[in-house]
Design goal:
By secondary structure, the protein is α+β, with helices and mostly antiparallel strands. Helices cover 36% and strands 19% of the residues. The protein has an eight-stranded antiparallel sheet with strand order 1-2-3-5-4-7-8-6, with helices on both faces. Helix 6 packs across helix 8. The longest helix is centred in the middle third of the chain and has 22 residues.
Length: 226
């Protein structure tokens, strides 16, 4: 019988969806048959981040910005990582807006801890960036009716302050109208995605990327590149 003390602890690559995607290990892109190597699905890379298509994309252009380092949310990133993320978000949003001619909305379920997850479905930070032909203002109005979003100068710095000083999770959103953030205690899982499904008038269950992986949209983004 194996002594539990002798069993090696699993690495993040073995237990984390996003760490698997970054490393090129087995992941959903391979399982869905839309990629055969990381070169296919890593749409853009920087020193500390990668950009991948969102499995379960609710629009034709819906990507995730994911830190290489295993952290729970943007609020846990270091100062240099936050500065890089700020530039990367602007760059990726501009690229997709120019490609599609659509408005861009960015949001994050900002986990503070494994229990206070802020509505996140994963234990690895990821920022959603969505292009939509519908007016983003309407989506923000819908979200604002459910949570107390407050305007802020920079959601990335506000996220770090909420995590570092207040010790709680958050919900952050950014569009051409500016940045907004709110405390996220008891936020339901996939809060923003559920709100997006409702706003886009998609099937109610489409927030669940495991059930609705949106394979054709994934192929479209991979083939087009970023």
């Amino acid at each position: 019988m194996t002594n539990p003390a002798e069993v090696a602890s699993p690495t993040y690559e073995e237990i984390c969806t996003f760490c698997n995607e970054i490393s090129g290990a087995a992941n959903s892109f391979y399982d869905l048959g839309v990629a055969t190597s990381p070169d296919d699905y890593l749409l853009h890379q920087s020193a500390n981040f990668v950009v991948v298509p969102c499995v379960g994309a609710l629009t034709d252009w819906y990507v995730l910005i994911v830190p290489r380092r295993h952290v729970l949310s943007t609020g846990w990133l270091g100062e240099e990582e936050r500065a890089e993320l700020r530039t990367l978000c602007d760059d990726v949003a501009k690229r997709i807006a120019e490609r599609t001619g659509h408005e861009i909305v960015l949001f994050e379920h900002g986990s503070f801890s494994f229990r206070d997850k802020g509505g996140s479905c994963h234990d690895h930070a990821h920022v959603h960036l969505v292009a939509t032909e519908k007016p983003v203002r309407e989506f923000i109005e819908d979200v604002s009716a459910a949570v107390r979003l407050a305007p802020c100068d920079d959601w990335i710095e506000s996220a770090a302050e909420i995590v570092g000083k207040s010790g709680r999770s958050y919900l952050a959103i950014q569009s051409s109208a500016g940045s907004m953030i709110a405390p996220a205690h008891n936020a339901p899982s996939a809060f923003f995605r559920k709100a997006l499904v409702s706003w886009l008038k998609a099937d109610e269950g489409e927030h669940d990327w495991l059930v609705y992986p949106q394979t054709e949209r994934l192929r479209g983004m991979i083939e087009a590149g970023l």
